[in-house]
Design brief:
By secondary structure, this protein is mostly helical. It folds into two domains: 67 residues; 170 residues, no CATH class. Helix content is 65%, strand content 1%. Strands 1-2 form a two-stranded antiparallel ribbon. A hairpin with a 6-residue loop joins strand 1 and strand 2. Helix 3 runs antiparallel to helix 8 and helix 4 packs across helix 6.
Length: 306
């Protein structure tokens, strides 16, 4: 190695100018110092971040622990409530079993019917008298008797004047028709047979047949309906109702009389129909209207009995 050549103790560089070497060394030392001073700051920041994370984890763990503790307390309270409810239910059953059964009235074995009370509901009301039934039954009976009385009086005026009774005698006389119900026979064979219903002979024959059969079948039906209205006598005492029966035959009697009235008016005219027949038909109508107000249901004690 030549004289005057020096080596750098740090990097081993060979330089003849120590000023340059010292300058580089100062720069390197200053750089090292600056790095050394900045490194604790960076490490402190890293340590703080790690501490914050640990604190957050710790807080989260504490919150989870508190939630788990609260859940456990809620479940414990729920179990306690269920236990109390079961205990109350058991106490109620024991109290019901321990309470003695008290009967209002005991029956003796020797006389079982000694403590029996009669049924005072629907059956008792069914046997109760009803002023409504008594009054309306009496009025309906009077009207029915009026209709029956008009059945024996002449129904038409003029030629072939007949009554309902004469018509029945003619229809049910059998081989003795010439002697019984002669007036009704004259009405059928003379008045209806000679009445000019239409210019067309076929239409006239159909109309004659219709009117003839209307009287032959309508008058007996009217008589039977009047007879079926007689059970109104059973309701005079106020115990038997039969409202449907009375209403049915009252209105059917009126409709039968109305049909006969139509046939008589068609053949003889309205002026030929007698007043007794109109009174009998009107009595049937009044009887049907009167029986609309015929009450006396079991649960109402008859309506007007009080």
């Amino acid at each position: 190695m030549p004289d005057g050549v020096s080596h750098c103790p740090r990097c081993g560089a060979v330089s003849e100018n120590f000023d340059d070497v010292l300058g580089r060394m100062k720069k390197e030392v200053a750089q090292c110092l600056s790095e050394y001073r900045e490194e604790p700051i960076v490490l402190g920041a890293k340590e703080r971040t790690k501490a914050e994370r640990q604190a957050e984890k710790k807080d989260r763990f504490e919150l989870l622990a508190e939630v788990a503790q609260i859940k456990g307390e809620v479940q414990a309270l729920r179990g306690e409530v269920e236990r109390l409810q079961a205990a109350q239910y058991a106490m109620a059953i024991q109290a019901a079993q321990a309470q003695p059964v008290v009967y209002a009235q005991a029956y003796s074995q020797e006389n079982p019917s000694a403590g029996y009370l009669p049924y005072s509901g629907r059956m008792h009301r069914k046997r109760a008298r009803s002023r409504n039934r008594i009054i309306l039954s009496a009025l309906a009976l009077v009207l029915l008797l009026l209709s029956v009385a008009m059945f024996f009086l002449p129904w038409v005026r003029g030629e072939g004047a007949f009554s309902g009774y004469e018509a029945l005698r003619y229809l049910f006389a059998g081989s003795r028709k010439n002697d019984a119900g002669a007036a009704f026979s004259v009405y059928l064979n003379t008045v209806i047979a000679e009445h000019p219903f239409s210019v067309n002979e076929i239409v006239s024959d159909v109309c004659r047949a219709f009117c003839t059969y209307l009287l032959k079948f309508g008058i007996p039906l009217y008589a039977f309906l009047l007879v079926f209205g007689i059970p109104i006598l059973l309701s005079l005492f106020g115990r038997i109702r039969l409202a449907g029966w009375h209403r049915c035959f009252a209105w059917t009697s009126f409709f039968a009389a109305l049909a006969i009235f139509g046939g008589l008016c068609w053949v003889s005219g309205f002026s030929a129909v007698s007043v007794p027949f109109l009174v009998g038909g009107g009595a049937n109508l009044a009887r049907g209207i009167l029986l609309i107000f015929y009450r006396g249901k079991w649960d109402l004690w008859g309506g007007l009995e009080n």
